[in-house]
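Researcher: Let's do a round of design. I'm pasting the structure tokens now; please hold your answer until I've finished.
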């Protein structure tokens, strides 16, 4: 039985019970008995109808608000899934190959990565602040900053690689790297690995946090099923710099 059916049944029961209690109390000899009975019944019916209408409207609005919030949380899950795919692809197809190599700052292929085209709608998620887990909003913001840091570092390293190619254009087959440039590349490369690992961890934590939040705040809600599928190990990531050079 839905809440709307329950409200109607409860209102009807209240009206019938009230009429049953009040009408017999009237003086059966009174000439106004019929009029009074009719008036009492009308008043009870009007009050009950108004109460039912108010309750139904209140519950309808509550249901609509819940559906909207569930949808906003699912959108946040979708954003996290998009970020997870991006970071895991970077790790699996590029970073993992040279993770333990002491020369990874030189061997790592340059990647020109663009930010995901979907972002968190923090304005829509502000209701989280009023929940029992308000820190979730901050964790989502931190997660987004971690992903932006990875992309920013990769883009900066990509620009340095382009400069190196321009500076060594007259020396085909070998790229000379100055000590200061090598130090900058190493710092950037280390930051890329650290930020990518942190972002991947934060994304997994936030996905679990949202699922737990929905289970606790909205029992019966069905979170999105987010599953990362590892790309084909044989597929190689073509450096974006090579595509630009060959265009």
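Researcher: That's everything. Go ahead.
Model: Designed sequence:
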């Amino acid at each position: 039985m839905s809440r709307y059916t329950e409200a109607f049944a409860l209102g009807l029961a209240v009206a019938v019970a009230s009429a049953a209690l009040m009408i017999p109390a009237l003086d059966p000899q009174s000439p106004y008995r019929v009029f009074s009975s009719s008036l009492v019944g009308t008043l009870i019916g009007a009050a009950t109808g108004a109460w039912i209408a108010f309750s139904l409207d209140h519950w309808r609005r509550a249901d609509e608000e819940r559906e909207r919030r569930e949808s906003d949380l699912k959108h946040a899950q979708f954003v996290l899934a998009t970020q997870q795919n991006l970071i895991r692809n970077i790790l699996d197809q590029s970073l993992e190959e040279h993770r333990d190599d002491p020369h990874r700052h030189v061997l790592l292929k340059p990647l020109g990565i663009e930010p995901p085209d979907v972002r968190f709608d923090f304005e829509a998620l502000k209701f989280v602040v009023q929940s029992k887990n308000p820190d979730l909003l901050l964790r989502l913001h931190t997660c987004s900053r971690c992903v932006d840091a990875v992309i920013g570092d990769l883009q900066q390293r990509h620009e340095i690689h382009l400069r190196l190619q321009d500076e060594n254009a007259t020396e085909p087959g070998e790229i000379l790297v100055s000590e200061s440039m090598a130090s900058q590349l190493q710092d950037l490369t280390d930051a890329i690995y650290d930020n990518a690992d942190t972002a991947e961890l934060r994304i997994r934590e936030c996905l679990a946090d949202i699922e737990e939040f929905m289970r606790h705040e909205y029992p019966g809600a069905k979170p999105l099923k987010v599953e990362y599928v590892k790309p084909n190990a044989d597929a190689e990531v073509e450096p974006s710099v090579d595509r630009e050079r060959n265009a």
